[in-house]
Amino acid sequence: MYAKVIVDVPAGGVDRTFDYRLKEEHMNVATAGMRVLVPFGARKQTGFITEITSSSTVKKVKSIHELLDVTPVLNGELLELGQWLAKETICFQITAFQAMIPAAMRAKAQKQLHRRDDEVTRLPMEIQALFGQKTTIDWKDVPQQKKILTQIQTGIVAGQLRVGYKLKDSAKHREQKAVRVVQTNETPNTDQQKKTLNRIAKKEQPVAVASLINDESLSRSTIQTLVKNGFLIEEHVVIERNPYTAAEGDGKEQKATLTSDQTTAVHALIQGVKSNQAKTMLLHGVTGSGKTEVYLQAIEEVIHAGKEAIVLVPEISLTPQMVNRFKRRFGDAVAVMHSALSTGERYDEWMKIQRKEVQVVVGARSAVFAPFENIGLIVIDEEHESSYKQEDYPRYHAREVAIRRSEKHQCPVLLGSATPALESYARALKGVYQLLELPKRVNEKPLPDIHFADLRDELRSGNRSVFSKELLDKMKERLERKEQTVLFLNRRGFSTFVMCRSCGFVGMCPHCEISLTYHQRGERLKCHYCSYEEGMYETCPECESDQIRYFGTGTQRWKKNCRNFFPKRRLFVWITTRRKRKVHTKSC
User: Are 114 and 135 in contact (CB under 8 A)?
Assistant: First the structure.
């Protein structure tokens, strides 16, 4: 038996499958969609099996070195989707396949150098010193010096040394020590041991030792004694990292009462799910019209039908509040996937999907590749957002990938937006997409008032602050009512640029050709593109004038003004590129 493998070498000359022989132990185990380690040229590379065949037209066929998976990481549909994606976006097949799995699962082959124990004394002293007491060292620890490399080559030829490769995944299972009761006729010696054993025996599954000590106040020494005497056995259990511990729900939240427009939209969606036909719908609803409730009730019907749902949300909208709403409705049936999660959290969430432990995925662009096998509905919220377009290879649009998957699963795709993309709205008006509309807000609540302030008028009236008088009055009003105010500004630093008023010189980044931003803390000028920085000028570098002035406004200037106007009020500045994860969910 043979396997056709796409090798992890993104190059035009090798963007095709290569035949490899299956070893005896791989027969009836290797399946299309599995990752493998194969010999490729002078080294070993990872790759994906795309097909298992009974014959090969290649005369000299190498064997697969190792299977990296027990079950396929890409099902048949995703393999086909990857090949389509490579053609549509003009990228390498391996690049398309890698985009479908979390970065944590992209195994890397780490080069190592091994020595034979019985040959150690015959190795040069420099090589012996490299190994010390070890028999294996990482190649990155080998000095790249001609003498050392020559000695290693000689040792390899003589059979004293050997180069190998160890696979290293970006993320691993998180484990902790647990104990379970061993069935025996013996009884513990002390009452304390008996009580401890009885409490552990009531647990059906292995119990984490840390949980027994911290949550149930059991003694570590007593547990260790029971293990030593054979009443308990230790083992390691996998812990699933929960990215949204603060957004838990029991899945028992009641449905909201729908408006007539919402009811029409939900019925149309449910009909689309039951029809088992690929259909694209556009839900055009004004802000606050209840689009999310439409999604939730449609997804509920999808789950009742035994199918799965994918909900795509722009990164900026994927807040704990948004996730919390899905958790409250569907409980543990929801997985979350987006870039703010740690590598380990993304790995755990993806594994939940593959193990069929969840029926709903809420995530950003890449969640469109969730390895579901029975999709009933794909929702793309705020479908006009540019973040649904991938800027790096493969340069796909999540909407087009979703439509392609819907054709395979014969399910509807729902595009939702208050301001649809021009092409989507045009297709809806032409009948290519089915148009659903929510023209009114829930309970007919009015839209918030929007006021524009012309700072030129403020300046003429003597207000030289960065805040208009109306804004300051509104902020004072909110504080008096013990309410909060949120100010948004898409500019970091204190001033957006500095300029010499004598000659017009502006501080520029030598690499990016954009103006440097002045940061008051540390008196630095910084480039927010390449991180270049330099000290603030005392005089102009061009004409040596001291007429240096600051122009533009950043978050630091706003902070200073807020301190001046409201000195006794608590102030929190959240800069998304610098703040720690989940800090916005904590009290400030």
Answer: yes
What angle is formed at CA 217 by the lines to CA 212 and CA 223, rounded to 5 degrees?
55
- The number of beta carbons lying within 10 Å of the beta carbon of residue 587 is 5
Same domain, 438 and 305: yes
> Can you tell me the distance from the alpha carbon of 150 to that of 153, in angstroms, rounded to the nearest whole number?
5
Task: Please name which of 489, 493, 486, 490 lies closest in space to residue 507, comparing C-alpha atoms.
Answer: 493
Domain limits at 409? Answer: 246-444
Nearest 5°: CA angle at 274, between 273 and 278? 50
78 and 350 in contact (C-beta within 8 Å)? no
Helix (H, G, I), strand (E, B) or coil at 342: coil
Residue 119 in tokens: 């040959």
pLDDT of 231-290, one tens digit each? 888 876 655 555 555 445 555 677 888 989 999 999 999 999 999 999 999 999 998 899
Q: Which of 108, 129, 144 is the last residue of a domain?
A: 108
Residue 197, both tokens? 């054993």
- What would the two tokens of residue 221 be? 């020494």
Token readout for 200 is: 């552990």
Instruction: Decide if 327 contacts 247 (C-beta within 8 A).
Output: yes
Kindly list the strands in the beta sheet with 108-115, ordered across the sheet, starting from the edge strand earlier in the chain. 136-138, 108-115, 161-168
